[in-house]
Amino acid sequence: MFNYNRTNLHPTTFLLLGIPGLEAVHVWISIPFCLVYIVSLMGNVALLFIVKTDHKLHEPMYLFLCMLSVADLMLTSSTLPKILSLFWFNYREIYFEACLTQMYLIHSLSTMESGFILAMAFDRYVAICHPLRHSTILTPAVMVGLGLVIVFRGAILLSPHPFLLRWLSYCRTNVIPHTYCEFMALIKLVCAETKIRRAYSLIVAFLTGGLDFILIICSYVLILLTVFNLPTKAARLKTLSTCVSHVWVILVFYTPAFFSFLAHRFGHHIAPHIHIFIANVYLLIPPMMNPIIYGVKTKRIRERFFKFLTIKCV
């Protein structure tokens, strides 16, 4: 038995199960999780510091990358500490309100990440297809405006999610077979009819991540058409090389995101531990890889990073 809030028939606390079937090795799983979290924190903080202190990097691509890094830091910090406490100390309890708050942060910040990746694609499109107008199109005011639109889109469109779940009855169990709170995991515990709520979640997912991905594909189609019209192979390769880092970021972000999304809704025969593991990869790997990808591929960032390390060592 578990305690209910008497007025709303929801449990006072939920119990996070972790990765179903792998409870015995949670401590061992926590080691790579912890290392990835540390690398994510260090990498994104270093990236923000480097871009802030190097005026040559105050370009739209890197400023959008900084916005992405801030969202990454907030996303990992809203989930990983609780996951590690579960793995290390078997601390499974999470208050109902805290669970809803975590769910909102995960979904809204993920939506913002998708928006920032789309903004970076728009920057690549303007830089390659309209190079002479790049500085006049992507002015500081436009970049701030785009950033605010992306933030408010994620914050507003996902704000109904906690309220959609707040007033429902959870009469089945208070055990969540997951490492963190997220919409689909919670709604499966509800006794009432949830078709409308599931439909809203699906529509929001399409209008954010789905639409962003379609627009990113369209931008790269236009980029490729422009590149193929360049006169020499060297020019084509040089132009495409400016998109390599961003393409890797797209793949790292959207591949586990789509797998997790489809598995929740259609993958009823996928083993639970595989699905939960991929869901954790979606939260862990992109925030770690984004600064690494741009650090390796961008000469300015790489040089500043090594210069910073040299100063610290001296």
Average of the residue pLDDT scores: 88
Give the CA-based shape.
globular
Biggest β-sheet, characterized?
A: 3 strands, mixed
Tell me the total number of β-strands: 5
Strand content bin: under 5%
In DSSP terms, counting alpha (H) and pi (I) runs of 4 or more, how many helices? 12
Indicate the low-confidence ranges by residue numbers.
none
Describe the structure.
The protein is mostly helical and 314 residues long. Helix content is 74%, strand content 4%. The chain contains 12 helices and 5 strands. The chain has helices spanning 26-53, 60-89, 96-129, 134-137, 140-157, 160-166, 183-187, 195-228, 233-241, 244-266, 272-297, 299-313, and strands at 4-5, 10-11, 13-16, 93-95, 175-176. The strands form 2 sheets. Strands 4-3-5 form a 3-stranded mixed sheet. A hairpin with a 4-residue loop joins strand 1 (4-5) and strand 2 (10-11).
Key traits:
G protein-coupled receptor activity; 5 strands; transmembrane; 74% helix; membrane; olfactory receptor activity; globular; three-stranded mixed sheet; two-stranded antiparallel ribbon; 12 helices; mainly alpha; single chain; 314 residues
Short characterization:
With 314 residues, this protein is mainly α.
